[in-house]
């Protein structure tokens, strides 16, 4: 399936603690073979409560490709959501490590 701007999506994320968290989002920017940006929120919360913008950007290098991952969060629940946000960041680190390992094995 191809990513398209303005495409809504639903996803389920499993945090390192095992907690499952549902998300609803919208693809806001796609540059094929270069980047994707999406905005979303946890399924059970409104966008005013907690909202995220997440991006993946691929940057060609001499030895391959570098993946840049960025996330920004806003909403009144952000200051009191420390544990969940730390879990989400740890999950992103683990995903990046697993991706790097898988790519190293395939080359």
List keywords for this structure.
single chain; 107 residues; 1 helix; 5 strands
Note the topology.
Elements: E1 8-14, E2 20-31, E3 35-42, E4 51-61, E5 64-74, H1 82-106
Tell me what you see in this structure.
- The chain is α+β, with helices and mostly antiparallel strands.
- Helix content is 23%, strand content 46%.
- A hairpin with a 3-residue loop joins strand 2 and strand 3.
- The radius of gyration is 15 Å and the shape is globular.
Give a quick summary of the entry.
The protein is an alpha+beta fold and 107 residues long. The protein is built from one helix and five strands, in the order E-E-E-E-E-H. The two termini are 24 Å apart.
Mean pLDDT: 87
Low-confidence runs of at least 5 consecutive residues: none
Query: If you compute it from the alpha carbons, what radius of gyration comes out, rounded to the nearest whole angstrom?
Result: 15 Å
How many DSSP H or I helices? 1
What is the overall silhouette? globular
- The H/E string reads EEEEEH
Helix content: 10-25%
Percent of residues in β-strands: over 45%
